[in-house]
Amino acid sequence: MTAIQQEITQLLLKWSKGDADALERLIPIVYPELRRMARRYMGRENSQHTLQTSALINEAYLKLIDQQAVEWQDRAHFFAAAAQVMRRILIDHARRYRYEKRGAGARRIAIDDVAIIADERASEFVALDAALVALTNLDARKGRIVELRFFGGLTVEETAEVLKLSPITIKREWRTARAWLYREISGENVTVDSKL
Amino acid sequence: MNAEGWNRVDELFQNAVEIQPSDRRAYLDKECRGDEFLRNEVESLLSSDSCDWEFIDRSALESAAVLLADEQQKVGHYEILKLIGRGGMGEVYLARDQILNRDIALKLLPQEYTQDPDRLSRFQREARTISALNHPNIITIYELGNVEDQEFISTELIEGETLRTRLKMGAMLIRDALEIALQIAGALAAAHRSGIVHRDIKPENIMLRPDGYIKVLDFGLAKLAEQSESFLQSTNAEGLDMSSGLLMGTARYMSPEQAKGISVDSRSDIFSLGTVLYEMLTGRPPFDEEHTATLTESILHEDPLSIDKLATAVPANLVFLVDKMLSKDRKSRYQNADELIKDLKFLQKELVADASHLESRRPESMLGSMLERIARWPGLAFSLIIIAVVLAIGYSSFKFLRGEAAEASTERLLAEAGTWTTKSPISSPRWQAEPAVLNNVLYVAGGWNVCSPFANLESYDSATDTWTQKASMIRARGGHGVAVLNGQIYAVGGSIDCAVHISSVEAYDPATDSWSEKAPLPSARAAHVVAVSNGRSEDRQVDRACADANPAIGSCRRGSRRNYLCDGRRRSVRRVVHG
Ligand SMILES: Nc1ncnc2c1ncn2[C@@H]1O[C@H](COP(=O)(O)OP(=O)(O)OP(=O)(O)O)[C@@H](O)[C@H]1O
Ligand SMILES: [Mg+2]
Q1: What's the count of helices (H) and strands (E) in chain B, helices before strands?
Q2: Residues with CB under 5 A from ligand 2 (ion)
Q3: Torsion of Cα atoms, B53 then B58 then B61 then B66, to 10°
Q4: By the 8 A CB rule, do A178 and B49 touch?
Q5: Longest dimension (CA), chain A
Q6: Do the domain assignments include residue B316?
Q7: What Rg value do the Cα atoms of chain B yield, rounded?
Q8: Which domain, by its residues, includes B486?
């Protein structure tokens, strides 16, 4: 295990136990690490390749934290913390991305597939974040499930373990959450019988 | 909606998705009992449920990766454009230097390795070594640095292909193979003279430029040697981890000493170059086994098939030369690269001669050709003289070439809007003649020609495209650093002979057209970089003159706004001149 892994894990643990400063120290470590991963797995010379290999990055991220080092009883807190950190970093990043593209500092127009898709994704991130706040107000458990699975990159089984629920429950709850978020974001007033 | 209402929606939705879409309407009729609001809620969720939504179905990180990839990726002032290659020591990118507006090669060291002091010093040593060996066949290094904890090295971008790529097309012409081997040997000779063993000569580390120049990359393995030795010792038959691809690639070209894990010297590089030459001539490496154990075994004990069995029209002397390079016992090899160069050059000439006499000469009897071989090889007295002359001419023309390079850099400074124009040349060809721009006038100071330093200072008038001689420096020098500070040009250090560095610092005042002596550097140095930091005009300082006084210290990196650090050797940072 590398020193970086150790540091990230320790800071996450501290943060999950209520040390607010740990977050400020985490972000500058995790963020460059993500950039480095992106650099490693992607390159814009081949957009097809870029879009395909993005799956690898999730694995790489999970390797960033040293799961063995986390005591069993801390796991729920720990992964919840990790997912929150990720959410924060990625949403900030998407906001900045959109600002740079469209805001005062707009420099470029979409020049290729990667840029077009990236632009869409950035908008989706921002919209999802707002919808997830609303969902959490309505149903906190579903909010956590989405945070763990989507931002934390955990599988159904891992999410179940962290929340001490059965995988079946996670799957069902996820499905409602997903439908709810989709409806919230698309703002559609769904016409009743078309899909039934 | 209250919690109770939501729970009901949730429950009905979760039940409805479990049943056939066609049965859902009936199910909701039954459960909602005319509660339109409830029914609408559940139906709209069901409708959303059936929509494709790729974004949520993959993890956030995957989507974020696309964003990251789309951002202009930067490392310091380098904009990363594309991945060129990947080796045992990180990735190499094509990148753009946004200050100098040129493309460069950027090698990034993966962070997991920068934690490891061995790996890091290997990397830094690679950089330092390369920059100290100012040789046309060795890659030029621009900068060694660290941004956001990312160690990097920027080097000249070499156009063209690696020898590995070239070898995919099979064996090469003898003539081409000799020329490439000769240039590699030239790089090795220079490195060995400075006490540096490359240790990783292999086709991946040789680049062929379209203009015929060969560049040797990666003088970086030296420091890692102990690590790989223990590594080799600790692994068994299939035990080598090929995940990086490094070891296998390297293993094929390693010397018996390396295979044994004992300490190596410059003769190890001669062996590795022998394996590369063998492959160039025959299209296959001399030691080709799949598994490391058998590969090591044959490197240690087996004689590869003779090259004339695998290629046609191989001169007997070339067979002899390759055999000698590939001797298991290093005492039987060429003892240094210069000896090898002599024989390679001899062979080159022989090849030309043979080609022109091909018609008139017939292959003689075995005895005849043996006699000829014996007679020709040791006929060195005469050929040595020729070689010496050739070397001398080569050497001086190399210097002339550098003189042209100095002119070229003048051209670059003068070039407008990216186009190159030939301008009138400086008074004589020389290299390491340092340019400086003062009050919008270009000056060129000092420089070399065949170990004779120049004291000349010349200024350039772009309106008339003419050079004017100005007051000469007090000491003639080349390889000095030049900086403009408070309206004067400073010449810092340099050497007055091919091997004698000086610490003298002098400054030129254009108002009086004269040079004055300044406080000398703390130690003599040449081929160093001088920087003026803290650029505000009221308190400029030459903060750093960081040297590689051959080859002790390497290039420098910026530590903070005010201080420049020399590769972690803070002590070598000295304030040289106070403005
Ligand atoms: N300065 C450069 N200009 C152009 N291409 C380069 C440059 N440096 C490296 N490359 C390319 O990148 C590839 C990878 O280089 P790198 O040195 O990282 O790996 P390697 O030579 O295969 O292994 P090792 O780490 O043992 O040297 C090279 O084979 C070459 O094709
Ligand atoms: Mg290399």
Answers
A1: 19, 24
A2: B 87, 205, 217-218
A3: -60
A4: yes
A5: 57
A6: yes
A7: 32
A8: 430-526
Give tens-digit pLDDT for B14-53.
999 999 999 999 999 999 988 999 999 999 999 999 888 9
Among A35, A186, A195, the residue with its CB nearest the CB of B68 is A35
Share of chain B above pLDDT 70, in %: 69
Q: Final residue of a domain: which of B327, B355, B383? A: B355
Residue type present at position B467 = W
Tell me if chain B has a CB within 8 Å of the CB of A174.
no
> Any idea what the CATH number is for the domain that residue B121 is in?
3.30.200.20
User: Using an 8 Å Cβ cutoff, are B520 and B504 in contact?
Assistant: yes
Task: Say how many Å lie between the CA of residue B204 and the centre of ligand 2.
Answer: 6
CA B153 to chain centre: 8
Q: Is residue B370 part of a domain?
A: no
- pLDDT greater at residue B306 or residue A57: B306
pLDDT of B289-346, one tens digit each?
888 888 999 999 999 999 999 998 899 999 999 999 999 999 999 999 999 999 999 9
Q: Which residues in A51-84 are b (16+ Cβ under 10 Å) and which e?
A: bebbebbbebbbebbbeeebeeeebbbbbbbbbb
* DSSP states of B205-264: GEEE-TTS-EEE--TT-GGGHHHHHHHHHH--TT----TTSHHHHHHTT--HHHHHT---
Tokens 């753009």 belong to B96
What pLDDT score was predicted for residue B148? Answer: 67
CA–CA distances in Å: residue A71 to residues A67, A163, B351: 9, 15, 73
Tens-place pLDDT, residues B180-237: 999 999 999 998 988 788 888 999 999 999 999 999 998 754 443 334 343 444 333 3
Chain B, 20 to 59: residues with Cβ < 8 Å from chain A are 21, 24-25, 40, 43-51, 53, 55-56, 58-59
Which of A31, A41, A57 is the mutation pick for testing B, counting most B CBs within 10 A? A57
Quote the tokens at residue A67.
């799961």
Confidence (pTM) = 0.49
A117:B66 CB<8 A: yes
**What pLDDT, on a 0 to 100 scale, did the predictor assign at position B182?**
97
| Residue where a domain stops, chosen among B355, B382, B417 | B355
According to the model, what pLDDT value does residue B533 have? 52
Partner-chain residue, chosen from A41, A114, A179, that has the shortest CB–CB distance to B48: A179
How far, in Å, CA of B61 to CA of B70, rounded?
Answer: 14
pLDDT of B557 higher than 60: no
Cα separation, B325 vs B337, whole angstroms: 10
Domain count for chain B: 5
| B560 within 8 A of B544, measured Cβ to Cβ | no
> Is there a contact between B310 and B282 (Cβ–Cβ < 8 Å)?
yes
pLDDT digits (tens, 9 = 90+) for B456-473: 899 988 888 888 899 999
Q: Give the least confident one: A101-115, B223-237, B472-486.
A: B223-237
Measured in Å, residue B220 CA sits from the centre of ligand 2 at 9
The verdict on the CB of residue B204 being under 6 Å from ligand 1 is: yes
- Same domain for B166 and B152, yes or no, is no
- Asked if omega into B551 is within 30° of 0 (cis), the reply is yes
**Same structural domain for residues B147 and B254?**
no
For residue B455, give Cα distances in angstroms to B441, B478, B501, B506.
19, 9, 15, 12
Partner A contacted by B67 (CB < 8 A): yes
Same domain, B19 and B115: no
- Cβ–Cβ under 8 Å, residues B434 and B428: no
SS3 B482: strand
- Give the pLDDT score at A84: 87
